[in-house]
Amino acid sequence: MARKILFVTTDQQRYDTLGCNGGVLSRTPVIDALAAEGIRYERAVPQSVVCMPSRSTIITGQHPSTHGVWMNGVPLPVDAPSVAAELNRSGYKTALIGKAHFEPFMDPFGRFTENMLARSGESTFDNSWNDGSVGPHRGFDHLEFATHGGAGMLHYAQWLAANHPESIEQYYSAIDGLFNVNATGGGDTGAPQVHDNPIPKDRYHTDWVADRTISWLDSLGADDDWFCWMSFPDPHHPWDPPMSELHRVDWREVPLPEGYLQSREERERVLDSKPRQWRLWYDGELVSNYEAPKSWVPATLTDDQVREVNARNAIECELIDEALGRVLAAIAARGWDDDLDVIFTTDHGELQGDFGLLFKGPCHVDALMRLPLVWRPAPNANMKPAVVTKPVGLIDLAPTFAAIGGLSPAGWMQGKRLPIDDGDADDRGFERVLTEWDSELFGVGVHLKTITRSDWVCSVYAPGTVHDGTEGELYDLKNDPLQFNNLWGETASAAIQADLVTDLLDNLPELRTPRLQCEAPV
Amino acid sequence: MATVRRDTIIQRSASDVWDVVGDPATIHQWFPGMVDCTVEGKSRIITTRTGLPLPEEILTIDNSIRRFQYRVLLPVITHHRGTIDVFDIGENRSLVSYATDCEPDAMALIIGGATGAALEELRSQLESSKEN
Lengths: 522, 132
Description:
The complex is a heterodimer of chains A (522) and B (132). Chain A has one domain: Alkaline Phosphatase, subunit A (3-Layer(aba) Sandwich), CATH 3.40.720.10. Chain A is 26% helix and 18% strand. Chain A has 14 helices and 17 strands. In chain A, strand 14 (432-441) and strand 15 form a beta hairpin. In chain A, helix 7 runs parallel beside helix 10. Chain A starts with a strand and ends in a 16-residue tail after the last helix. Chain B is α+β, with helices and mostly antiparallel strands and 132 residues long. Chain B has a single domain (2-23, 58-131), classed as START domain (Alpha-D-Glucose-1,6-Bisphosphate, Chain A, domain 4, 2-Layer Sandwich). In chain B, 27% of the residues lie in helices and 46% in strands. Chain B contains 2 helices and 7 strands; from the N terminus they run E-H-E-E-E-E-E-E-H. Chain B has helices spanning 14-21, 105-131; strands spanning 2-10, 34-40, 43-48, 53-62, 67-72, 79-90, 93-103. The termini of chain B are far apart. Chain A binds chain B through residues 73, 104, 106-111, 115-116, 153, 177-180, 290, 442, 517-521, and chain B through 2, 6, 31-34, 48-50, 52, 54, 76, 104-111, 113-114, 116-117.
């Protein structure tokens, strides 16, 4: 019998939303306990700060340049490498329950497996694997999907339609009448994508994902080895947790985030020190990617709106923590706990008021790039609790899953199994992590690559419609943890800038050719 | 209004490609996600795999320049024009361009995004039938 793997992801969750990472708004005792028993990573970095490329990195263990999913809307080919397929081939039962998003949601033609599976009544479809064989879709022999609301074609939406149709409209409509990301405000402050959702908590997608995970686990034999990716759609916007839970965090008492400068003058001075897309987005003059509401102007964001967004986000994080607790209790009741590895992380962060911005965009700073990551190894593996300060990436998850399953890393994996402490990180060369951004939306192209190394983050911009290729960002994380001071181009930092740029260019990942096409907005 | 264009080169003559593209009743045989198609005069109704009916108006079938144009007629779409051009580029090869002009903008990506896969399927079918 091998170790069992519960892989838990959330969507768009900041590092500082967990108690174990110093967060004070949301209570996350379940994850905090896993961190205390296991390994907590203080500098976990995504390879993309949007969903589809980042999730594709998780499953393939490859950089976006290599797996080819350069932005939302670009589908990951069905025969892309998959660590789930590796585990499945070795005898693991495999499931993905919740938000997958390797394929676009907007799919009126029904071209993508994720969208067509729910109505089929099947647990999975057979598809090609990267080695030319045929097996369950992306290596998962059980798939049940959900996303951020109650509408659509996925399993959760179908379940809601069949059992509680009145709840579909209770959710915020993430898309407006023009098929753009909705900018409509709600709650007490009118903040965009905030909405009072009367749905009962036990129908909300967070509880549904946990319920379906428990149901799948119940279907397994006592001696089965399994890998379950439990993927919560929250705390990604819209911020519409069940109204019954709003009492948990009173937005009026929420302190403003350190990254949110109350002084407009100071905020805009910081924005102006960064490459120009920052200020253009803030002023409502540029939306470079579909994920940010086109008709919302960040400069209109108020202090109270920041408070309310953060409050609702914290509530969603609490609900996830409690749902995870229920799943862990069900696993313990099966007697599996000593053999169980739990890894908790997210796909990318959320600006959540930092620099006067919400959502996500071409902004490679901690708000989007410093992620919560906790690995509680199976107790019978006898690993010591640790805190890892060296940089690791989501690209390192696939080889970690393989290692837990007793497999050698596949040749196509570009990362390394996660270090178990800083000494292990030093011994195995965890020095740098790369992050990429490529967006092309209706003639607006933004392209940057970033290296995170030691106490520095450095971004290089390629020529595009907004940049001429000379722009960059350089932050000293130790002395400027909020990334307010862009040191790019300053004489005093010229040497470290040159060194980081060289290091970045020397380590660029293999480029997939031909380039995959964007086939939908998201 | 937004515009999306996809193109491909097919190892078949422009005449062979136009025989397929210029026949409005057979698009569901090469456009992934379309499962049925009926044509009456200038009216075409597509049914997608999700069960969505897409009523369309055929605007142009020009055999001389090998151009096919149509527009989707849905209340949520204020403007749409799909244009497929087949160019003879010599040596028994064709360049096929599939343009989508649409409002609202996001719909250009939703509809136009699928046209790349359609051209790939068209290329695959025509080149494999040539081999056979």
